[in-house]
Sequence to fold (236 residues):
Amino acid sequence: MHAVITGGAQGIGYACAEKLLSLGWDVTILDINSHKLKKASNELHCDYALIDVTDQKSVEQFFSQIVSFDALINNAGIWRPQQLEEIRIRDQEDVVNVNLIGTLICTKAALPSLSNSSRGNIVNFSSLAARTKSPGLGLYAASKSAIETLTKQWAVEIAPIRVNAIAPGLILTEGTEENYQGEMKERRANVVPLKRVGEAVDIANVAAFLVSEEASYVTGQIIDVDGGLGSGSPQS
Ligand SMILES: NC(=O)c1ccc[n+]([C@@H]2O[C@H](COP(=O)([O-])OP(=O)(O)OC[C@H]3O[C@@H](n4cnc5c(N)ncnc54)[C@H](O)[C@@H]3O)[C@@H](O)[C@H]2O)c1
Fold:
Protein backbone atom coordinates (compact mmCIF):
# COMPACT_ATOMS: atom_id res chain seq x y z
CA MET A 1 0.00 0.00 0.00
CA HIS A 2 1.20 3.47 -0.85
CA ALA A 3 -0.10 6.77 0.53
CA VAL A 4 0.71 10.31 -0.58
CA ILE A 5 0.27 12.93 2.15
CA THR A 6 0.28 16.66 1.39
CA GLY A 7 1.67 18.98 4.06
CA GLY A 8 3.49 16.00 5.54
CA ALA A 9 6.54 17.85 6.89
CA GLN A 10 5.00 18.64 10.28
CA GLY A 11 1.89 18.46 12.42
CA ILE A 12 -1.02 16.24 11.46
CA GLY A 13 0.47 15.28 8.06
CA TYR A 14 3.68 14.12 9.73
CA ALA A 15 1.70 12.11 12.30
CA CYS A 16 -0.34 10.47 9.51
CA ALA A 17 2.89 9.51 7.75
CA GLU A 18 4.37 8.10 10.96
CA LYS A 19 1.23 6.07 11.68
CA LEU A 20 0.91 4.61 8.18
CA LEU A 21 4.62 3.77 8.05
CA SER A 22 4.21 1.91 11.36
CA LEU A 23 1.44 -0.13 9.71
CA GLY A 24 3.69 -1.11 6.81
CA TRP A 25 2.54 1.42 4.22
CA ASP A 26 4.90 3.13 1.79
CA VAL A 27 4.46 6.85 2.25
CA THR A 28 5.44 9.89 0.20
CA ILE A 29 5.17 13.25 1.90
CA LEU A 30 4.75 16.44 -0.09
CA ASP A 31 5.37 19.88 1.36
CA ILE A 32 6.27 23.42 0.40
CA ASN A 33 8.81 23.77 3.24
CA SER A 34 12.03 22.28 1.92
CA HIS A 35 13.98 22.27 5.20
CA LYS A 36 11.23 20.65 7.27
CA LEU A 37 10.41 18.24 4.46
CA LYS A 38 13.95 16.86 4.29
CA LYS A 39 14.16 16.66 8.08
CA ALA A 40 10.84 14.79 8.24
CA SER A 41 11.80 12.35 5.51
CA ASN A 42 15.12 11.64 7.26
CA GLU A 43 13.37 11.01 10.57
CA LEU A 44 10.60 8.90 9.07
CA HIS A 45 12.70 7.17 6.37
CA CYS A 46 10.12 7.87 3.71
CA ASP A 47 10.02 9.38 0.24
CA TYR A 48 9.32 13.06 -0.24
CA ALA A 49 8.76 15.67 -2.91
CA LEU A 50 9.02 19.43 -2.65
CA ILE A 51 5.60 20.45 -3.96
CA ASP A 52 3.37 23.46 -3.53
CA VAL A 53 -0.16 22.05 -3.79
CA THR A 54 -1.30 25.23 -5.57
CA ASP A 55 1.23 24.74 -8.36
CA GLN A 56 -0.79 22.73 -10.87
CA LYS A 57 2.15 21.95 -13.17
CA SER A 58 4.40 20.49 -10.51
CA VAL A 59 1.53 18.57 -8.89
CA GLU A 60 0.58 17.06 -12.27
CA GLN A 61 4.19 16.23 -13.01
CA PHE A 62 4.56 14.50 -9.64
CA PHE A 63 1.46 12.31 -9.99
CA SER A 64 2.18 11.49 -13.64
CA GLN A 65 5.24 9.56 -12.42
CA ILE A 66 3.14 7.29 -10.17
CA VAL A 67 1.41 4.45 -11.99
CA SER A 68 -0.75 3.37 -9.08
CA PHE A 69 -1.18 4.29 -5.44
CA ASP A 70 -3.83 3.71 -2.80
CA ALA A 71 -4.50 6.73 -0.62
CA LEU A 72 -4.29 10.50 -1.07
CA ILE A 73 -4.39 12.48 2.16
CA ASN A 74 -5.16 16.11 1.30
CA ASN A 75 -3.87 17.54 4.58
CA ALA A 76 -1.99 20.72 3.54
CA GLY A 77 -3.84 23.71 4.93
CA ILE A 78 -3.27 27.27 6.13
CA TRP A 79 -5.24 29.85 8.10
CA ARG A 80 -5.02 33.65 8.28
CA PRO A 81 -7.42 34.73 11.04
CA GLN A 82 -8.64 38.29 10.39
CA GLN A 83 -11.76 40.21 11.38
CA LEU A 84 -13.88 41.30 8.42
CA GLU A 85 -13.03 45.01 8.86
CA GLU A 86 -9.28 44.29 8.66
CA ILE A 87 -9.32 41.53 6.14
CA ARG A 88 -6.55 41.46 3.53
CA ILE A 89 -8.01 39.92 0.41
CA ARG A 90 -4.63 38.58 -0.70
CA ASP A 91 -4.24 36.59 2.53
CA GLN A 92 -7.68 35.08 2.19
CA GLU A 93 -7.04 34.23 -1.47
CA ASP A 94 -4.03 32.27 -0.22
CA VAL A 95 -6.27 30.39 2.23
CA VAL A 96 -8.72 29.43 -0.50
CA ASN A 97 -5.91 28.57 -2.90
CA VAL A 98 -4.16 26.18 -0.53
CA ASN A 99 -7.14 24.66 1.29
CA LEU A 100 -9.62 24.39 -1.55
CA ILE A 101 -7.92 24.79 -4.93
CA GLY A 102 -4.86 22.86 -3.70
CA THR A 103 -7.09 19.96 -2.69
CA LEU A 104 -8.79 20.14 -6.10
CA ILE A 105 -5.49 20.24 -8.00
CA CYS A 106 -4.05 17.27 -6.10
CA THR A 107 -7.22 15.21 -6.35
CA LYS A 108 -7.63 15.77 -10.09
CA ALA A 109 -3.97 15.01 -10.80
CA ALA A 110 -4.02 11.89 -8.59
CA LEU A 111 -7.18 10.38 -10.08
CA PRO A 112 -5.61 8.30 -12.89
CA SER A 113 -3.13 6.58 -10.55
CA LEU A 114 -5.68 6.21 -7.72
CA SER A 115 -8.04 4.57 -10.23
CA ASN A 116 -5.37 1.94 -10.94
CA SER A 117 -5.62 0.74 -7.33
CA SER A 118 -8.46 -1.59 -6.32
CA ARG A 119 -8.66 0.24 -2.98
CA GLY A 120 -8.07 3.85 -4.05
CA ASN A 121 -9.34 6.40 -1.57
CA ILE A 122 -9.00 10.02 -0.47
CA VAL A 123 -9.02 11.68 2.93
CA ASN A 124 -9.67 15.42 2.84
CA PHE A 125 -9.18 17.83 5.72
CA SER A 126 -12.02 19.95 7.01
CA SER A 127 -12.16 21.54 10.48
CA LEU A 128 -14.65 21.79 13.27
CA ALA A 129 -14.54 25.50 12.41
CA ALA A 130 -16.53 24.70 9.25
CA ARG A 131 -19.57 24.24 11.47
CA THR A 132 -18.88 26.29 14.60
CA LYS A 133 -18.68 29.52 12.59
CA SER A 134 -16.19 31.17 14.94
CA PRO A 135 -15.73 34.89 14.30
CA GLY A 136 -12.53 36.32 12.85
CA LEU A 137 -11.53 33.34 10.74
CA GLY A 138 -11.57 35.11 7.37
CA LEU A 139 -12.21 32.49 4.68
CA TYR A 140 -10.72 29.57 6.64
CA ALA A 141 -14.02 28.13 7.91
CA ALA A 142 -15.69 28.79 4.55
CA SER A 143 -12.89 26.98 2.71
CA LYS A 144 -13.39 23.99 5.01
CA SER A 145 -17.20 24.04 4.51
CA ALA A 146 -16.47 23.80 0.80
CA ILE A 147 -14.20 20.82 1.46
CA GLU A 148 -17.07 19.07 3.27
CA THR A 149 -19.39 19.70 0.32
CA LEU A 150 -16.78 18.48 -2.16
CA THR A 151 -16.07 15.38 -0.10
CA LYS A 152 -19.68 14.29 -0.50
CA GLN A 153 -19.85 15.40 -4.14
CA TRP A 154 -16.69 13.50 -5.08
CA ALA A 155 -17.77 10.40 -3.11
CA VAL A 156 -20.66 10.13 -5.57
CA GLU A 157 -18.78 11.39 -8.63
CA ILE A 158 -15.67 9.21 -8.49
CA ALA A 159 -16.90 6.04 -6.75
CA PRO A 160 -15.64 3.35 -6.29
CA ILE A 161 -12.78 5.58 -5.13
CA ARG A 162 -13.82 6.36 -1.56
CA VAL A 163 -13.72 9.98 -0.39
CA ASN A 164 -13.99 10.96 3.26
CA ALA A 165 -12.92 13.92 5.36
CA ILE A 166 -11.68 14.44 8.88
CA ALA A 167 -12.77 17.53 10.79
CA PRO A 168 -10.29 18.04 13.64
CA GLY A 169 -11.15 20.10 16.70
CA LEU A 170 -8.45 21.76 18.83
CA ILE A 171 -5.24 19.95 17.95
CA LEU A 172 -1.80 20.95 19.15
CA THR A 173 0.62 21.04 16.22
CA GLU A 174 3.55 23.20 15.14
CA GLY A 175 1.00 25.25 13.22
CA THR A 176 -1.23 25.94 16.23
CA GLU A 177 1.23 25.87 19.14
CA GLU A 178 1.11 29.63 19.70
CA ASN A 179 -2.55 29.18 20.74
CA TYR A 180 -1.60 26.77 23.50
CA GLN A 181 1.13 28.59 25.41
CA GLY A 182 1.04 28.44 29.22
CA GLU A 183 -2.42 28.67 30.76
CA MET A 184 -4.08 28.81 27.36
CA LYS A 185 -3.64 25.08 26.87
CA GLU A 186 -5.49 24.29 30.09
CA ARG A 187 -8.18 26.83 29.34
CA ARG A 188 -8.76 25.33 25.93
CA ALA A 189 -8.67 21.79 27.31
CA ASN A 190 -11.45 22.71 29.73
CA VAL A 191 -13.89 23.64 26.96
CA VAL A 192 -13.53 20.16 25.44
CA PRO A 193 -15.85 17.44 26.82
CA LEU A 194 -12.90 15.01 26.98
CA LYS A 195 -10.94 17.69 28.89
CA ARG A 196 -7.84 17.70 26.77
CA VAL A 197 -6.50 19.34 23.65
CA GLY A 198 -6.02 16.80 20.86
CA GLU A 199 -2.70 15.58 19.55
CA ALA A 200 -1.76 14.98 15.94
CA VAL A 201 -1.75 11.24 16.57
CA ASP A 202 -5.46 11.39 17.52
CA ILE A 203 -6.12 12.47 13.95
CA ALA A 204 -3.59 10.08 12.41
CA ASN A 205 -5.32 7.10 14.07
CA VAL A 206 -8.60 7.99 12.37
CA ALA A 207 -6.90 8.67 9.03
CA ALA A 208 -5.30 5.22 9.24
CA PHE A 209 -8.74 3.68 9.70
CA LEU A 210 -10.26 5.64 6.82
CA VAL A 211 -7.56 4.60 4.33
CA SER A 212 -7.71 0.96 5.44
CA GLU A 213 -9.80 -1.87 4.04
CA GLU A 214 -11.72 -1.87 7.33
CA ALA A 215 -13.34 1.32 6.06
CA SER A 216 -14.10 -0.18 2.64
CA TYR A 217 -17.84 0.60 2.95
CA VAL A 218 -17.31 4.12 4.30
CA THR A 219 -17.47 6.98 1.82
CA GLY A 220 -18.80 10.53 1.71
CA GLN A 221 -18.39 10.92 5.48
CA ILE A 222 -17.05 13.80 7.54
CA ILE A 223 -15.55 12.38 10.73
CA ASP A 224 -15.26 14.86 13.61
CA VAL A 225 -12.21 14.16 15.76
CA ASP A 226 -12.66 16.80 18.42
CA GLY A 227 -12.98 15.27 21.88
CA GLY A 228 -16.72 15.97 21.69
CA LEU A 229 -16.41 19.74 21.23
CA GLY A 230 -18.70 19.75 18.19
CA SER A 231 -21.50 18.42 20.40
CA GLY A 232 -21.09 21.20 22.93
CA SER A 233 -18.87 22.41 25.71
CA PRO A 234 -19.18 21.70 29.44
CA GLN A 235 -18.38 25.40 29.93
CA SER A 236 -21.10 26.90 27.76
N1 LIG B 1 -4.27 21.77 14.21
C1 LIG B 1 -5.57 22.00 14.33
O1 LIG B 1 -6.08 22.38 15.43
C2 LIG B 1 -6.50 21.82 13.16
C3 LIG B 1 -7.87 21.95 13.38
C4 LIG B 1 -8.74 21.79 12.32
C5 LIG B 1 -8.24 21.48 11.06
N2 LIG B 1 -6.91 21.36 10.86
C6 LIG B 1 -6.45 21.06 9.52
O2 LIG B 1 -5.53 20.00 9.54
C7 LIG B 1 -4.53 20.18 8.52
C8 LIG B 1 -3.14 20.15 9.13
O3 LIG B 1 -3.06 21.11 10.18
P1 LIG B 1 -1.74 21.24 11.09
O4 LIG B 1 -2.17 21.85 12.36
O5 LIG B 1 -0.99 19.97 11.07
O6 LIG B 1 -0.94 22.37 10.24
P2 LIG B 1 0.63 22.75 10.27
O7 LIG B 1 0.69 24.21 9.96
O8 LIG B 1 1.28 22.27 11.52
O9 LIG B 1 1.20 21.91 9.04
C9 LIG B 1 0.74 22.16 7.73
C10 LIG B 1 1.78 21.71 6.74
O10 LIG B 1 1.28 22.03 5.43
C11 LIG B 1 2.35 22.59 4.68
N3 LIG B 1 1.82 23.46 3.61
C12 LIG B 1 1.27 24.70 3.75
N4 LIG B 1 0.98 25.20 2.55
C13 LIG B 1 1.35 24.29 1.62
C14 LIG B 1 1.33 24.25 0.21
N5 LIG B 1 0.87 25.28 -0.53
N6 LIG B 1 1.78 23.13 -0.42
C15 LIG B 1 2.28 22.09 0.30
N7 LIG B 1 2.35 22.08 1.64
C16 LIG B 1 1.89 23.17 2.30
C17 LIG B 1 3.17 23.38 5.70
O11 LIG B 1 4.47 23.66 5.23
C18 LIG B 1 3.12 22.43 6.89
O12 LIG B 1 4.19 21.50 6.85
C19 LIG B 1 -4.87 21.52 7.85
O13 LIG B 1 -5.64 21.28 6.69
C20 LIG B 1 -5.70 22.24 8.89
O14 LIG B 1 -6.58 23.18 8.34
C21 LIG B 1 -6.03 21.53 11.89
